[in-house]
Amino acid sequence: MKQINNNDLFNAIVDDNIDVFSSLIKGNENLSFGRFNILSICYIYSAKKIIKKYIEKLLKIKKYNVVGEPTKIYKDFRAKAGRCLRLYVGKQNVINVLEILAILHKDSLVKKLFNKCELNKENIDNIKSIYTIYGQTVNIKENKIKITKPVMGYYEKKPYKLGLLISLSFVMVFSLLFTIFNFTTGLGTSFSPCLVYNQNQLYKALNNSGNYELASNITIDNSFGDVEFDGLLNGNGYTIYVKDNSFNYLIKNNLGTIKNLNVVYNDIEKEISSSFSLLSQTNSGTIKNVKITCEKLDLTCKKTRAKDIYINGLANTNLGIIENCDINFEAQIDALNDGECYIGAIVGVNKSIVKGCIFNSENGIKATEVDASGIAVSNELSGHIEDCKNNAKIEQSSSTNKWSPTVAGIVLTNYGSIYNSYNLANLKIISTNNEEEAEGNVFLGGICAMNYSEISKCLNKGSLTAESKKIIVYCGGIIAYSQNYVKDKKLLSSPNIYGCGVDCNIDVVTEDEKAYVFGGGIGGYLESGKMANCYSLATFKTDYDETKYFFGTSLGMGYCNILYFGGVPFEIYFGFSVSKVCMLEQSNVTLQIGALLNVNSITTGINFNLDGLFTLGSLDLIKQQGVYWE
Questions:
Q1: Are 422 and 460 in contact (CB under 8 A)?
Q2: What is the pTM of this model?
Q3: CATH topology of domain 6-147
Q4: Largest Cα–Cα separation, the chain
């Protein structure tokens, strides 16, 4: 079958252009535009020339090659079908041409072609129903069809008209009720989606396959937490207003596509003991152009050692695609008991693609004993985060011993890839853990807190602030802490940082003399991997100190092996490599790397002059290196 332009063929039928039709139809006679085959379309548009020449050939076709159904066909069919339309709502089978002819009142043609068409029980039932609606009866016997004519004499017309008016009134009432409780317009196909006007219709739509569109704003008073949706829901820019504050997610699982939708919540204040999402528990399909707003999200998280608890806007777990979504909420998240609780504004665990998403909030996130990030909690090996932005300030406070408070602008823990993502808001951690044998660490990263894989073309412009009484702090403009990802003695990934930029203030203070700080313009600690084509304009509020504050213009601390001669290091084998990493010179932090970790000892106070690291006196000099961007 040769490739043709389906629109050209359809237009030729509408225009009854026999020449164009003949040039296109050869080898394509079995096309069906959705539920309407070529012969049916010819009768709908009275293409007499085409019918006369091709009817015999088109009648013999039994199997169809179905292509998309143009909206125009459905609209024109709907206008002609009238009350008969209800026979086809929600059905997607090809409509038999005799049904079309019956709807068009072409009774003589129905009789003439009856023996030439292959009919099944559904076709015959539809034909009978059509004539019943028209006030006629059908008798089929021995492959013949008899159709009665309605009596339309002078005296019969008045009661017939009255009956017709009553019937039409009934149909109008029925249609109105059908609109309220079901779907009166649209057949659930891509060319004819069902329109959704209210909560009942929305619940039915989310429990079915097919294509649905919001036709107005909708208010719902309960969530649909049992729903696993595998159709397409187009919000058309309309808003779902959720009045129920007792749920943990709007729908359970999304297996289909949800797009162009706004969801607005009342203030939510509740205690949770399991993962919480404003949209879905799991996304295995596509969520696109969705905006979620909740002015105040106040949650108390009852932690348990048995399971991790994730709080987010779109999905606890993403296995599909989340694209161009906007989350806006002010969150107060507090934790009770022992266990792990995390908030990522967009997703919890990302195992696929999150792209072009933004967390916007004037007051952002305030968390107590809950780790927090602007986009995702964990980006797994298969996960990719791209073109995302955090515009909301994030703060965590912690007093519990053995708890390591962790905050990041984009991702808390990265095993996958993060690309072209920005943190533009201030991040802060306050640890008041004052135990005598205090355990734990502070991890604060402009882009990522714990990095095991690739971060590229990312920018941090948000200030980093950390305060600790007795526990160690790792703080960096891009990453807080970074090392190889090893599992079952296999190296699965290495931490590479490419083309990233930092332009922020770093302010870290601690009380205890053993509460060390490892802070750098790019990273707090880098064990292995690569840094290349990066720059840092970071300024440090606290001065470098050989005994406690290990700040470096690039890294707070790096891992290496050092060979000593006479107690003096003469050769260093770094666990990581650098290439063209440029830092702006600072008066109070002069070392490029604040300290080097060698087995279990720390070497400090030496400017190691690692090849590939450049401390430059001005922004213009950094620009000349070709690494600067914003």
A1: yes
A2: 0.72
A3: 1.25.40
A4: 125
